[in-house]
Amino acid sequence: MKLDKNITNILQKIVNDYGNSSEIVKRTIEIGRDKISYIYLESVSSDDKISNFFMKDISDYVKNKKKSLFENLFDSLENSIPNSHLQIVKTYEDIYYFLSSGYTAIFVNNEDRGIVIETKSSLDRGVTEASSEAVVRGPKDSFTENNATNLGLIRKRIKDPNLWFDETVVGRRSKTKVTIAYIQDVADIDRVTVLKQKLEAIDVDGILDSGYIREFILKENKSSFPQFKSTERPDLACTALLDGKLIILVENCPFVLITPGLLIDYLHSPEDNYQKPINTNFTRLLRFFAFIITIVTPGFYISVTTFNQQMVPNELLISLALQREGVPFPTAFEIMMLIITFEILRESDIRIPNAMGAAISIVGALVLGDAAVSAGIISPIVVIIVAITAISGLLYTDIDFVNAARFWRILFILASVIAGLVGFVIMGIIFITKLCSLETGNVPYLTPIAPFYAKDQMNFLFRKSRDKMVYRPKFLSPKNQRRLGGNK
Fold it and tell me: Helix 331-351 vs helix 380-393: angle between axes, to the nearest 10 degrees?
């Protein structure tokens, strides 16, 4: 809807549409026969900026009589306040967007257009250390809720004009800025185009977090494994950009999305890039085996001790039988009860304040476990099995990946309860088949193992020295693949 020429009508409509909110501040100044009005939202704007910048002596802006008052005012503001965004708007919809974004709107009587100037108040926290990803060695800064700050954290690391930011606005009411970051001469442009189309197709009231974007893009994919890597760390995001991946940044969200997100991304850590290869290789092996252990261990134990006891050595079988003497519950029930108890403790540890978290963990791990064994409700070996399973799952910080491992762990347990080792093997085949069938951004989830890329094994399970990683992953960057020594 176009603006009215009468500033009284304009101000009245804005006030009415905002429900006569107490955060609205407006003022009208008369200069001779002319009237100039300005309006802003006190909750998102800075009073000091408004007073010190352009309302300190507004009469100085209208001395030149060669132009209209509106044009003279715009030119004066543009020349005197070069560090703020300045724009002419002609519709109420644009006015509402800029007012809610911390801008001040200025109107001149008998003009059906207005001027908006940025006077944002600082409502964001500063750049701090990542809270969800521990930093042992590496940069300590992390993304924040401020979109411009997040772009700056990337730009200061990659000072290349080919680093492009494509911005779109998503959400009919929230009007959230969503930015796709990529290196133009490295990334697959077709992948960028498809991602843009998916973002533009999102039609929803509001986008409040990057998780909304991920859910809308993957709405046809029901897999439990995450296919967008989520991170707070700018160094990890820049590493992905240099490999040819795309980054999605969402306004008011400190977590960016990396696409395509593959299985190997969750077995790696940003710390791997800052340590010697021999140390990195050992920790990656630990993560790989921990991934297998946390999913299959409970189900395998149930299958071999309940259905397929002939696979267990006699001495060990006798020891297990002695431990279970007097325990009233079957093995599967013991394991499920302990796993559910651990998940409750883990969830409570996440939700409660940090000062209480350590106490809860100690009570849960020591008191409850020891009391259950002493009471004869749980056998000691089951406590060991569940503890190994839980500890192995703690190697991963991505909550979506942890939840996916938990989901498949329960499926393995159910299959083992129903059919023993046969059910366990069948579920293993289903698990591998499911992983092989997944795709993210037209890239198979198990790449570079399936399909196998020989050159890309330099940085998969084992990492070679930096001088030997000459090429970018072929499945991510079909062009400009050489990263060492230029494009030869």
Answer: 40
